[in-house]
């Protein structure tokens, strides 16, 4: 099914985050990313940049409204829509104002919404303060197998799995272009938003972002370190609602046909340099 899908390549383009106190959350990201926020007609707020854009909506705290993946032309979006329908997956209207009319959405068993489309034209995006391209979004779920199978039907490719000593799946990483993962999930007792990541260009960028956070008196929650799956350098911070925000560099690249790899569920897998955030 994966080889038949026209999804590849697609990249995470923007996300919607929900909060019961959007002004405080928006203020955090304005300080962090030094951009401008625009209130939309439907009451949502948009923080737009050249390579990272976020929508903020009133709703449950720590909520992931949707993850939106950009494709390079409308014809391929239409072909993906046909492919998704052939897989027996219900197609929904796109909730994103940043994609064209051809865009559509799908929802997995846990209610996580994925949107596919092409970015709308118009005014140039606001320049980014420094490199940090929105790169992947991650959820927690008690239904790991279902969420993986759903994404495989869409055309994502499984990169790595993490299993405990009893063979239980505790994490999975999937890609939609040569970067190691654009989607991932961890085993958790209830469905939840886990984190999102922005990819920088080098270790020096990681340093510069950490210096910026220091100037803002925002402490690092985890890292710096290096993940096993993905082999990327990283650190994480917590936003005003407690959502985890990752800054990454040197994400591993994999061809489409590279076979899935298996990792042991242990701290070393998630951080080759030291301690790890273990979800289970």
Q: Give the CA-based shape.
A: globular
Under the CATH scheme, the architecture of the largest domain is: Roll
Termini separation comes to 31 Å
CATH topology of the largest domain: 2,3-Dihydroxybiphenyl 1,2-Dioxygenase, domain 1
Strand order of the largest sheet: 14-15-16-13-9-12-11-10-17
Q: Estimate the helix proportion, in percent.
A: 10-25%
Major sheet = 9 strands, mixed
> Treating each run of at least 4 consecutive H or I residues as one helix, how many helices?
5
Superfamily at the CATH H level of the largest domain?
2,3-Dihydroxybiphenyl 1,2-Dioxygenase, domain 1
DSSP summary, beta strand count: 17
Any idea how many domains?
Answer: 2
Give unreliable regions as ranges.
none
User: What percentage of amino acids are in beta strands?
Assistant: 35-45%
Overall radius of gyration: 18 Å
What is the residue-averaged pLDDT? 96
Computed structural class = alpha/beta
Features:
single chain; 280 residues; alpha/beta; 2,3-Dihydroxybiphenyl 1,2-Dioxygenase, domain 1; 2 domains; 9-stranded mixed sheet; 8-stranded mixed sheet; 17 strands; 35% strand; globular
């Amino acid at each position: 099914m994966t080889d038949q899908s026209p999804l590849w390549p697609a990249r995470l383009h923007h996300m919607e985050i929900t909060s019961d106190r959007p002004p405080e959350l928006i203020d955090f990201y304005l300080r962090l990313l030094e951009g401008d926020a625009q209130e939309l007609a439907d009451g949502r707020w948009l923080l737009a940049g050249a390579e990272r854009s976020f929508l903020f909506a009133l709703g449950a705290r720590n909520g992931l409204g949707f993850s939106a993946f950009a494709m390079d032309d409308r014809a391929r979006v239409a072909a993906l829509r046909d492919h998704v329908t052939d897989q027996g997956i219900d197609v929904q209207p796109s909730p994103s104002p940043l994609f064209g009319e051809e865009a559509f959405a799908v929802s997995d068993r846990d209610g996580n919404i994925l949107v596919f489309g092409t970015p709308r034209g118009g005014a140039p995006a606001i320049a980014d303060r420094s490199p940090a391209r929105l790169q992947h979004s991650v959820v927690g779920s008690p239904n790991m197998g279902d969420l993986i199978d759903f994404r495989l039907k869409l055309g994502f490719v499984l990169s790595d799995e993490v299993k405990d000593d009893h063979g239980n799946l505790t994490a999975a990483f999937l890609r939609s272009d040569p970067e190691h993962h654009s989607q991932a999930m961890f085993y958790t007792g209830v469905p939840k938003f886990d984190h999102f990541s922005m990819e920088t260009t080098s270790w020096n960028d990681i340093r510069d972002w950490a210096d910026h956070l220091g100037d803002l008196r925002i402490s690092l929650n985890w890292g710096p370190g290096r993940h096993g799956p993905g082999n990327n350098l990283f650190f994480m911070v917590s936003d005003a609602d407690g959502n985890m925000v990752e800054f990454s560099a040197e994400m591993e690249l994999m061809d489409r046909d590279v076979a899935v790899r298996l990792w042991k569920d242990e701290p070393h897998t998630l951080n080759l340099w030291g301690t790890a955030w273990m979800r289970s």
